[in-house]
Amino acid sequence: MFDCDLHTHSRFFHQKPGVAAGFDPYGARATLKVATARGLDGIAITNHDFFRPATIVSDACIPGIEISTTQGHLLVVGPNPPRDTVSGELTPHEAVELAHDHGCATIIAHPFRNSTLKESDADFDAIEVNGKHPEHRREIERIAEERNLSLVGGSDAHFPFEVGRLSTRIDADEFTPEAVVRAIENGRVEPVARNGPLFRALGVVYNRIHEEKGHV
Description:
By secondary structure, the protein is an alpha/beta fold. The chain has one domain (2-213): TIM Barrel (Alpha-Beta Barrel), CATH 3.20.20.140. It is built from 5 helices and 9 strands, in the order βαβββαββαββαβα. The chain starts with a strand and ends with a helix.
């Protein structure tokens, strides 16, 4: 059994892949260090529309990418995620097909924030309880049950101190990208929430920021 945050980023803001690219390994190490201190076994690195092998700084890092589809963000995790995607170019069906062709699992990210992915009939593997919107958990559980999707958790951490508010318990014999994909596909996963003082305070900040941005 392993505990992994399936939604983290190696840089603080949504920059283009070529901007501050040299920082990515350092950001990944910092996030992993905090995750380990909080009892996690690993993290998935899911940067926006790009994947770089250099970001996988440890066997405790699962490769991934967060694809900006025409209907919202799709997490893709596994041994060989796509290297680059164009924001807003791929439909959900195209993104899922691309991910599956690369041997990866697909996860609907933050389904209640600027996303209609949950309305698509694409062949998703899972849906996420997002660390910045844990209040939607019951609704997401209902969607997962209705659509026979696995239920996972991820913090959506851009800063290391955010990691682990939501993570995923993975029933597997080994912690490898391939084993994580199989566990997600077979429903051998469940979200894990942490609600200490720091995360409660962060929840207030997240809600205020997303309200100001008009995110839902």
